[in-house]
Amino acid sequence: QVQLMESGGGLVQAGESLTLSCGASGSTFPANVANAAGWYRQPLGKERELVATITRDGRTTYADSVKGRFSISRDSAGNTMYLGMNSLKPEDTAVYYCTHGNFIGVRYYPNSRWGQGTQVTVSS
User: Does the pLDDT value for residue 54 go beyond 70?
Assistant: First the structure.
């Protein structure tokens, strides 16, 4: 099993932008084990939440809290996944994790290992 690795986090001020990357030695969408990928985040002291997903055919979903501000994407080969974040708010502060998994019905189920994540801190 290939470990996904997040990068690109940092400290920014409210209103600024940041792009996170997720890569692996192979595809972020392993054949027959994943038909989608997703970004999660976990603020300090709170539960992990699903932020955005993307399927093999390019369909995307977003949490209501980030709609219109965040954008999930993949490169053409599927080796790298991105989370573009615009108009960042202090409440976006969290550790961000990337995953691959599957949609069963309308729900996304990750099946990748949890990595260290990347810290995003937004100051006011």
Answer: yes
Measured CA to CA, the distance from residue 89 to residue 14 in angstroms comes to 5
Mean pLDDT on 66-90: 93
CB contact set of 9 (below 8 Å; sequence gap of 6+): 18, 20, 96, 118, 119, 120, 121
> Residue 36 has which token pair?
């989608």
CB atoms within 10 A of CB 100: 23
CA dist 18 and 87 (Å) reads 9
pLDDT at 103: 94
pLDDT computed for residue 106 by the predictor: 92
Give 120's DSSP letter.
E
Report the distance separating Cα 74 and Cα 60, nearest Å: 11
Q: Are the C-beta atoms of 100 and 3 separated by less than 8 Å? A: no
* Alpha helices (runs of H) in 1-124, residue ranges in sequence order: none
Q: Residue 2 — very low, low, confident or very high, per pLDDT cuts 50/70/90?
A: low
